[in-house]
Each structure stands twice: as structure tokens, then as C-alpha cells.
Give the backbone structure.
Amino acid sequence: MSYARQMLDTYPHALDVDADALAVTIDAVNDCAQACAADTDADLSEQNLADMVECIRLCLHCADICTATAGVLSRPASSDAMVTRPLLEACAAICKTCGDECERHAHMHEHCRVCAEACRRCERACREFLGAMK
């Protein structure tokens, strides 16, 4: 069981969202933020650095948005759909864009393949959680 799920289980009152879906989404955005941070570092170590500039830029954006999303989702007691919905939409959008860019490099760089996979998982989780929101 993930720490996100364990923490959700400790809440003193019932949540107005599906705790399993929320935990899956928190885990996915945290994993994506970590993968993007690591991919950025690996990209900066590549010899063809000029070819990696867009990948680096998008990974930085993606990591920032995923980190913000994880923070907001991790505070469900005061959840506000007017904030959460656009944040999840932005997260899904940057994960799509970043995943597309990382896939362009995946045949040459394994770190980009792993990052693209994390982006795709995060994009799916955000979209599924958006669909489950009231």
C-alpha cells in the first residue's frame, strides 16, 4: 500500500472523493515528477545536449506541475474542484506533451523511455480522476 493511500486512510472524516482513485493519482504524479527530474539530469549528461533542450524544458515544466498537483491533491480535506479540476487538466496536458517529446528520444536514451512511460501513466491517472470527480 502506498504512503498516499495510508495517509488517506488516517483522515478523521470521510472524504468526498474515491480514496483509491485519489491515491493512484497522487502516486502517479509523484512518480512522474521524480522521473522528469531524473530525466532532466540524464539529458544534461548526454553528448548531444543541443538535441535535448526541448526535452529538458518540458521535463522541468512537467516536474513542476506534477509537484504542485501532488501537493494540492494531498490535501483533500479542503478540496475545491474549481482549483483541482484545472490543475489536473494542466497536469494531463503537460504529461502528454512531455511524454511525446521523451518518446522521440526513447530509441536512443533509455532514461527518456522510462520518463515517457511515467508521463503516460500520470496523464491516464489525471484523466481518470477527472472523470471520477463529481
Q: What stands out?
A: Residues 18-132 form a domain with the Substrate Binding Domain Of Dnak; Chain:A; Domain 2 fold (CATH 1.20.1270.360). The chain has a mean pLDDT of 95. The chain has one domain: 18-132.
